[in-house]
Design a protein that fits this description.
Two copies of one chain form a homodimer.
Chain A (H helix, E strand, L loop, with lengths): L20 H20 L3 E2 L5 E3 H4 L10 E5 L4 H4 L8 E3 L4 H10 L8 E10 L11 E10 L7 H15 L6 E7 H10 L7 H8 L2 H4 L1 H12 L3 H11 L2 E2 L2 H11 L7 H20 L4 E4 L12 E7 L9 E11 L4 E10 H10 L3 E3 L7 E3 L7 H13 L4 E3 L6 H11 L3 E4 L8 E4 L5 E3 L17 E3 L12
Parallel strand pairs in A: 1-5, 7-9, 14-15, 14-16
Antiparallel strand pairs in A: 2-4, 3-4, 5-6, 6-12, 7-10, 8-9, 10-11, 11-12, 13-19, 16-17, 17-18
Helix pairs in contact in A: 1-5, 5-12, 6-7, 6-12, 7-9, 9-10, 11-12
Protein name (chains A, B): Histidine--tRNA ligase
Keywords (chains A, B): Aminoacyl-tRNA synthetase, ATP-binding, Cytoplasm, Ligase, Nucleotide-binding, Protein biosynthesis
Pfam families (chains A, B): HGTP_anticodon, tRNA-synt_His
Chain lengths: ~475, ~475
């Protein structure tokens, strides 16, 4: 008996992953552990419907191509061909858009700041040939205020996520932070025009993909900065560090004499306050990384990306930031800060690389053998007694030879086989891993090791060299 | 401070229910409890993708009108207008169709009998004006064999579901069973032709809706039975009971002298074996009810429906049966037996009728007050210490006056407010329900009652008269 096979199920539709039972044990354990951490920090769980009106989904034009539209197979033809986006429904492609709508819908009854987590599948109508997931789990936490939201939530959100990820049996994840105000204030300090800021952010965001020279070229040729401005933007983008004052000084030094814009100083105050609190509460969890820009998104201050050790090629495994103006109902504005894991993508990598093992694919701790079909009721009684005591038990499907029943347990990774006593003899239980068999009573028996009660996840040591943990 | 408000969230789309945090606490607690029971009985959890090819979904023509089709908003026009059902994708409308496909896809690696539970949302493209749910949770358990599946699983499946439902804070649910072989064998015994059997089942299935006289009329006028045959079918349909031999005798007596067909005797052996085992393991949980027919479905033997005390008008809250021929891959056949709860419908009723209360809508047990923003770090340390010890804690959003911070906790139902000590004084914690305040240390404090650690569900006594539990 070895640990259960963790691999994807056969699925004839590309982009719609499914797991065999062992993989699902891992996925469920990840979800349960994430939930546990979020709840310890006072986050409420909510779920939103899977569909939103198309108009809601396409508010930001960038994502419209990813939407799956719905139509009723036997609908009225007028409905079906409707192109009125307020009537058409689509599947949500993230959890931020529906959460924002939920907050506005229920603003009158929710209590703010509202801390919520949300773990649901999302769908993206990607082109099949790109080999991306078209259905996957996202795991989001957000804190939303009514009118205002204190800066300390910009610290709380990544620290909670860091704690949640650290509790999973995966390689360490480091959260990289920057601040839009630092970047934009820095650019303005070196004379980049307000109309160019978003474009500069968009180009700098490609640094890891296309390299420094290509970024500099594009800044000059496409965005229209000077070569000196492009060089300054690249100096900023190379700054990383955990020590607040060192980061502040490095950013100011990168100005090379230009006077710091007020927005830059505000941003640096926010960023250093975050680093300071993060360093105190979870040393090493968070690092400033001034190249993080989060493209064209709606972020207004702090931004997050996160990288798993040994899987940097996977890109950011969890991302987010502060959005001061995301939700509004006309009268009230709801600023928020949040972070989101692409769980299916993370899990898929963890399992494909064999980084996690699971002790068995079934919840069952004990298989109760059946002596013969006439005595099945005795086996049922044993199993029911164990279950009442919180021990997962199954009864053999047929009264086959005991050797075959033991094989049934072994094939599934069930550690114990229970033999009901016959003719006045007592029951006994066998640990089929060690072969050890001992007398037992269903009312009192427990496995020596509580870990045998449920499937256990184990991180698998990889061949990666130990880097000594300095960083 | 009273218990949290359990009511639906505002949702602008009819048929797509959403819950406020308190309602979600109840839904999540139901799901967790159901999972716990299923896992104690050795059922594996799986999830399948939300979509299936249209051809898979419409194999049984009856349900085709309920399918939501998907199309990519910006797909190639040829794809979008495709009417090839093997290319088109739709959302699953139940969990049986995708589970069957999953079993066939993975038959080479699954171990049989395969016991699985599955808790997922399903979608039905109902006409909006019908006011039905178009998105809802289904909760299924099934056992599937490879080639053969012993009859004892027909007992196990409803008993597990009965145990799972009994662990929820809802009125008692009784599972009603019948057997297709009993009904069909009985009809054949009184001379109803084989070609009429399915039609007779379909008409008898309407008994509760249209009444005995209308059923008799329809059997004679539409199906073409004799008046005597219709009367016999109605005699069978009125039989209920828990005592195996009494049920057998009542069925045979209802033949009024006709010779019992072999299929009837086989069916009675199956039904009485089920009643016998059920009576032994969970007295009162299961009752024979010979009018249960399950319409035109694919069932081949045992069938189940279930009714919640005081909510019989809701119809069956969980249904299923044995299907000997549901799944096949050409070479192998996979017989199964299963039962499914429409969880959202059940929950919606339970909450609408106020049958369950929840002690609070947030996971938080302790709100740590903040003396002033300069000392927020001290409050963070208290909260982190409590969390490490498994106690959910939140820190006040602002250093408002303590009265306002206590109000913040009260509004959310958080039972304890923690005051960090200032100037060498120790910390103290206040139970804001009793007003009692005592010194406390974050490293050692626990609430006197562990029930305060998490939101608690409580069944609410209704005004229904106590019927004495006889049934």
């Amino acid at each position: 008996m070895s640990s259960a096979q963790v691999r994807p199920a056969q699925s004839s539709l590309s982009g719609f992953p499914e797991w065999l039972p062992a993989g699902r044990v891992v996925e469920q354990a990840f979800i349960d552990q994430l939930r546990r951490t979020f709840e310890l920090h006072g986050f409420c769980g909510i779920e939103t419907r899977a569909v939103e009106p198309l108009a809601q989904l396409t508010k930001k034009g960038e994502t419209s191509k990813e939407v799956y539209l719905l139509s009723r197979l036997q609908a009225d033809p007028r409905d079906r061909d409707s192109t009125d986006p307020s009537k058409q429904l689509g599947l949500h492609f993230d959890l931020t858009v529906p959460f924002t709508r939920y907050v506005v819908d229920n603003a009158g009854v929710l209590t703010f700041p509202f801390k919520r987590y949300q773990i649901q599948k999302v769908w993206r109508g990607e082109r099949p040939q790109e080999g991306r997931f078209r259905e996957f789990y996202q795991v989001d936490i957000d804190v939303v205020g009514d009118g205002a939201l204190p800066l300390h939530y910009d610290v709380e959100v990544p620290l909670v996520m860091s704690e949640a990820l650290a509790a999973l049996p995966i390689p360490p994840v480091t959260i990289h932070v920057s601040n839009r105000k630092v970047a934009q204030g820095f650019y303005q300090s070196v004379g980049i025009g307000e109309d160019q800021l978003i474009e500069v952010l968009r180009v700098v965001d490609k640094l890891d993909k296309i390299g420094a020279q290509a970024v500099a070229d594009e800044l000059v040729s496409t965005v229209g900065t000077t070569a000196q401005q492009a060089a300054a933007a690249l100096r900023l983008a190379t700054i990383t560090g955990q020590e607040p004052e060192a980061v502040r000084e490095a950013v100011l030094a990168a100005l090379e004499g230009a006077a710091p814009h007020e927005l830059l100083l505000t941003g640096l105050d926010e960023l250093t306050a975050l680093l300071d609190a993060a360093h105190r509460r979870r040393p090493g969890a968070i690092i400033a990384d001034l190249k993080i820009a989060r493209g064209l998104d709606y972020y207004t201050g702090t931004v997050y990306e996160s990288f798993m050790a040994g899987a940097e090629d996977l890109g950011s495994v969890c991302s987010g930031g502060r959005f001061d103006n995301l939700a509004t109902n006309g009268k009230r504005t709801f600023p928020g800060v949040g972070i989101s894991i692409g769980l299916s993508r993370l899990l898929s990598r963890v399992l494909a690389d064999g980084l996690v093992e699971v002790s068995r694919a079934v919840p069952t701790a004990v298989l109760v053998a059946v002596t013969d079909e006439e005595h099945r009721a005795a086996s049922d009684t044993v199993a029911d007694t164990l279950r009442r005591r919180g021990i997962s038990a199954d009864v053999a499907p047929t009264a086959a030879k005991f050797g075959k029943q033991i094989k049934f347990a072994d094939k599934r990774g069930i550690p114990f086989v229970w033999f009901p006593g016959a003719d006045g003899e007592g029951d006994s239980v066998k640990d089929i891993r060690s072969g050890e068999q001992s007398p037992a009573e269903a009312e009192t028996w427990r496995p020596a090791d509580d870990a045998d009660l449920t499937p256990q996840l184990q991180p698998v040591a990889t061949a990666e060299p130990d880097t000594g943990g300095q960083g």
